[in-house]
Specification:
Enzyme class: oxidoreductase
Catalytic activity: 1,2-dihydroxy-5-(methylsulfanyl)pent-1-en-3-one + O2 = 3-(methylsulfanyl)propanoate + CO + formate + 2 H(+); 1,2-dihydroxy-5-(methylsulfanyl)pent-1-en-3-one + O2 = 4-methylsulfanyl-2-oxobutanoate + formate + 2 H(+)
Distance between the termini: 90 Å
Strand content: 15-25%
GO molecular function: dioxygenase activity
Radius of gyration: 28 Å
Keywords: Amino-acid biosynthesis, Cytoplasm, Dioxygenase, Iron, Metal-binding, Methionine biosynthesis, Nickel, Nucleus, Oxidoreductase
Shape: elongated
Structural class: alpha/beta
Biased composition (Basic and acidic residues): 130-139
Low-confidence stretches: 136-146, 349-358, 454-467
Strand order of the largest sheet: 11-10-9-12-14-15-19
């Protein structure tokens, strides 16, 4: 059994939602909630007889048993309610969460597994939910879909198993992916410094996010600004284990239409921002002989997209930088992964108060006359934005869960592609490069031999032709 204060962050009810404020069994007893662990049902029978219980119900909460009504039932169980009589809750298999309201009207989450038993007093508001290991696929047909997990070759954290508490700095913590990654790390009990943009987010909006979260502001284009953020995180948490850079900026428009300010701003944010983050943190990682970089690139860092030329160029530069860095820092046990998401939708697309535009930190520049026709290739990116709207196929929440696993795995890959669009588009790009290599490999331009050997070769060729 583990009990803690519920963090009240948005997200699936089946996530841990651990605020980091622990609650003891004695604290639960003060609310009238009593905990026991009974490996044998005979012990439960004895307790029931002792407390005068006459009725007993056994419910199996699983997609296999409940079928199509499973999701509706789980949502129903999570509606808070109370009972007029004292009740026992005994877990015979699996695991889940019971939430109870304390006297301060806050939710206390109690994580229970097989053989755990709690006694709920009469008149206490409570609710129940399964955890992530007991979910149904998004489709109502077929078997339940397993939780997304990195392959075993990465040695990722075990599902529902204990993990070491890590300290994260997440640059771009107010953006599409950054927001979801901050929530994911906090829900798993990690410590997070969430870094917003100085010219976009008021400092007061970064305060009070979570007990385990330090809200900061930064302009990644400034080396000093990045260094201050790192020092503030060190002052608060005493160490840093993972640095994630989700910050980014792009201009949608033809290469010719983008002026020097547009191009420099994209490179200063995407490339120089990444370099500033590395320069501020790598000496510390090198000294402690451990550290991890999770750098958000893009599918545009692997292929050229019409209408995103300078943005692609800045992401290509990031890819080359991180790939070289990985070789240089491997001896110091510093790991780096390039994360290449494709067409990721917002974590809360239907929330009226969501301050982010549908396509995040992209500016759509009006086209000049030469690139303004409806079928102009330069308008490809703009057409894609208008066509997709808020229907991007890849979930930011699911991506964030995989990136969190990436921070905790033992053998991270150099690249992690997220979403079917990223997989298919980069696979097509690689196939095109391979075909070009095959088409032109005959132009190998071998080194010129010595003059005497060259004459001998010519003579042999001539004789062969004469025959």
């Amino acid at each position: 059994m583990k009990a803690y204060m519920y963090d009240n962050l948005p997200g699936d009810q089946r996530l841990p939602h651990d605020s980091g404020r622990q609650v003891t069994a004695e604290d639960l007893a003060g609310l009238g909630v009593l905990y026991h662990r009974f490996p044998e049902t005979s012990d439960v029978d004895a307790l029931a007889a002792e407390r005068g219980y006459r009725n007993r119900d056994e419910i199996v909460v699983s997609p296999e048993k409940m079928g199509d009504v499973y999701e509706d039932k789980v949502k129903m169980f999570f509606n808070e309610h109370l009972h007029e009589d004292e009740e026992i809750r005994y877990i015979r298999g699996g695991q889940g969460y019971f939430d109870v309201r304390n006297k301060g009207d806050e939710w206390v989450r109690i994580q229970l597994e097989k053989d755990d038993l709690i006694i709920l007093p009469a008149g206490i508001f409570h609710r129940f939910t399964t955890d992530e290991s007991n979910t149904r696929s998004e489709s109502s047909e077929g078997p339940p879909r397993p939780r997304l997990h990195l392959p075993a070759s990465c040695d990722p954290p075990a599902p529902n198993g204990p993990t070491k508490q890590l300290v994260w700095i997440i640059f771009g913590g107010t953006g599409h992916m950054g927001r979801s990654l901050v929530k994911s790390a906090l829900s798993h009990g990690d410590l997070v410094a969430s870094v917003g943009r100085v010219f976009e987010t008021p400092l007061e909006d970064m305060q009070g996010i979570h007990d385990n979260c330090l809200g900061l502001l930064c302009d990644v284009r400034s080396r000093d600004s990045v260094a201050r953020v790192f020092q503030q995180a060190m002052d608060r948490f005493g160490r840093v284990d993972v640095v994630a850079n989700c910050s980014g900026y792009g201009v949608i428009g033809a290469c010719e239409d983008q002026d020097e300010h547009d191009v420099r701003n994209q490179f200063e944010t995407n490339f120089m921002g990444t370099l500033h983050i590395i320069h501020a943190t790598l000496p510390y990682f090198r000294r402690q002989q451990a550290g991890r970089y999770l750098i958000f690139s893009s599918t545009s860092g692997a292929l050229g997209v019409p209408g995103l030329g300078p943005y692609c160029a800045s992401k290509y530069a990031v890819e080359g930088l991180i790939e070289a860095l990985l070789y240089e820092t491997d001896a110091f046990h510093v790991k780096a992964t390039l994360i290449e998401p494709g067409l990721v939708r917002r974590d809360e697309p239907d929330l009226d108060t969501n301050p982010l535009p549908t396509w995040g930190h992209f500016f759509i520049k009006p086209p000049s006359e030469h690139y303004s026709t409806a079928t102009s290739p330069a308008l490809h990116a703009k057409r894609m934005v208008q066509w997709l709207g808020d229907r991007q196929p890849t979930s930011a929440v699911k991506c964030a869960e995989l990136v969190w696993q990436l921070g905790h795995c033992s053998y991270p890959p150099l690249r992690l592609l997220l979403g079917s669009y990223a997989i298919e588009s980069i696979r097509d790009r690689m196939r095109s490069v391979t075909e070009e290599l095959e088409d032109w490999k005959h132009l190998n331009f071998a080194s010129v031999p010595d003059s005497d050997q060259g004459n001998d070769e010519m003579e042999v060729t001539a004789d062969a032709a004469a025959v």
